């Protein structure tokens, strides 16, 4: 395939180069596990010049302990028409995650490898942390309100048996606590609404279609 791209079919090479340009996180075209074409973003992530990336096996970009698995993943993806592979890069030590998609059939088939966009991963991580934080705050609000309501009901029962029930200070305390509990109710509803929004965003990103 490398001879086909480099020699007999320049239009095919141009088409693949154009295809790779759609993936700013990095993209590569593989034939029999070897890089026949990559875009500049992919090369930058490997820490090598584009000319040094093209022509070598994808497994050669990985640390030694990952190479056998990378080669096997490419073979499996070619057979199944799709797959994925992740490895640590030998040059930079950074992580590369590729989604693999077969293009074509037979001996001329190639794999398009699309690198995960680190920016999306950062957003996904941030949204996940926000969901966790909101969930924690929601639990605190619910526990606070339940505790106050329980104690207030106990005090009201005790006050009803004494002159405290007619004390204006006690009435002010009850009113203030009722107002505070209403505020907690509002906070609970607001946090719940925010959680729904962030959970929906997290699910959207996880599916690979972030609405952002």
Automatic annotation (TrEMBL):
SMART domains: PAS. Gene3D superfamilies: PAS domain (3.30.450.20). Residues 14-79 form the PAS domain. InterPro entries: PAS (IPR000014), PAS-like_dom_sf (IPR035965), PAS_fold (IPR013767). It comes from the Bacteria. GO terms for biological process: regulation of DNA-templated transcription. It holds the Pfam family PAS. Transmembrane segments: none annotated. This is PAS domain-containing protein. It comes from Desulfomicrobium orale DSM 12838.
